[in-house]
Records
---
Amino acid sequence: MTTFRAYRIFEEDGKAASRFVDMQLDELDPGEVVIKVAYSSVNFKDALAATGAGKIIRRFPCNGGIDLSGTVEKSSDPRFKSGDAVIATSYDIGVSHDGGYAEYCRVPANWVVPMPAGLDTYSAMVLGTAGFTAGLAVARMEHEGLEPAKGPVIVDGATGGVGSVAVDILAGAGYNVVALTGKAAETDYLKKIGAAEVMLRSELDLAKIRPLGKETWAGAVDNLGGDVLSWIASTMKTGGALASIGLAASHEFKTTVMPFILRGVSLVGIDSVNAAMEVRENVWKRLASDLKPRHLDDMATTVSFDDLASVFGNILEAKAKGRTVVKIGG
Ligand SMILES: NC(=O)c1ccc[n+]([C@@H]2O[C@H](COP(=O)([O-])OP(=O)(O)OC[C@H]3O[C@@H](n4cnc5c(N)ncnc54)[C@H](OP(=O)(O)O)[C@@H]3O)[C@@H](O)[C@H]2O)c1
């Protein structure tokens, strides 16, 4: 019987309590595919879940980690065979189904994405849910007509995981990317990964947001919500596409119908958790080819499984930069 380590989130006295435990395969949630985990990652959602700062876990106890990559150990589904490199992200993983912070994971075959040519277990986790979400946002904005000739694309929360990958892949695809950040000290980093211009949130006047401001952005990737999202909506160009992804600042969004009915702006909602498998496989293939980031090494910090808990605080306090990869067995 294989015994392995897992970082498991319990509920104790009404609060989340996370710690390493020893487990056996038959204790994991069911599924057709057993994966030997090579790498996982730390998304904003993982930090909320493991610390209990957000009500993310829907079933206690649960192994954390919404992302994982690794190799198939065994599969009762003929689509996968032992040794195949695979990715599994979101669905219920790390939320109500044992996740990627464990040396082994067992998931339904319908949640497993074959590793696309051009990525490996490490680079797939530098991307992780954050990278997949950025790729999905670009694909959805393009579907609404976004192309480089239409004008600049703003990315906020730009030094974060979704933001960093979005800056990199948009710049690689030929877009003029303006990175909006709270971190003046990371200007060089943002320019290195592809931003043509860096704007500081402290420079914005968010006290007086008009229904329609100066037409500026052909596209926008919003990770923050709240006032920044309201300001972006009011400054979209005619025919622009605005992807709403996150709520790192606020879940509120105050706007008027003006940008949508007088400028034809498309508000594109991005939901990485429920993306259909066909969409998922296409986005991962693009992240391995025409949207492949060029600066993964600049945005990645790798931590050992033992040091996992040390990174949650920085992410919750918006001090982290880029993507955090967790080396499980990789
Ligand atoms: N819709 C989906 O399917 C989906 C998928 C993945 C993530 N998300 C959401 O997208 C957001 C970004 O995720 P992530 O993994 O990239 O997180 P992250 O790595 O923690 O980055 C978030 C970034 O947002 C900025 N920020 C954080 N707190 C802020 C605050 N209170 N006020 C203003 N700016 C703040 C910071 O960037 P700067 O300092 O550079 O401004 C921070 O680095 C989160 O809300 C996450 O839950 C949604």
---
Amino acid sequence: MEKQEIRTFGRRHGKKLSIRKQNLMDNVLPTLAPKNNADILEIGFGAGEHLRALAIENPNKIVLGAEPFMNGVAALLSAICDESGAVLPEYKNIHIFPDDVRLILNNNRFAFSEIWILHPDPWPKARHEKRRLLNAEFLNILASHLTPNGKIIIGTDHWEYYDWILEQVKKTKLRCNDSTLDTIKTRYQQKNMAGTTEPKYIILSL
Ligand SMILES: C[S@@+](CC[C@H](N)C(=O)[O-])C[C@H]1O[C@@H](n2cnc3c(N)ncnc32)[C@H](O)[C@@H]1O
């Protein structure tokens, strides 16, 4: 029997979807299900603005996004499809897993050259700390899905979580690299919920 994972995300559904978004969820989402290969993974893509940028920057690579929040998935679908519901040519390399990423990592042999996690939920209260996704066990799972030169890129504007992640990394076989990075501001970053200014990045490799 599969291990019961601790839930690392908040709600799965927000406000009722528009007719267009519901149609895209019903008819387009199933066509974008992950196949047996993908080159780049983004975990918790939110509304998908960074995932879209990855798809455009890497036209010859399959970019897989995992996100259990249905309104985020619908927002991404709406942004990558035209009025008729056809996926725009620049986004044909996007695959979507609309659920907890651990379900797909535990059951597949993907090997990614890049794994992105931008603004993972910080679960700041001490009693919620166990919900943090980027613990040592999960980082080791990510490490097992990297290509030989692959890297894990983490961004957060929550300093306490940042320090906590670095402590977790020490318990793994991963090593930290130069961590300056210029990437787009995601929706969560723009909300700047932690009240800080710039995110810090952690870049990990084997
Ligand atoms: C704070 S939001 C940040 C969203 C986006 N990356 C951004 O920067 O705007 C964290 C996201 O991670 C997602 N998430 C949390 N646990 C996850 C998991 N186990 N698998 C996939 N996504 C997860 C949540 O649903 C949420 O959308």
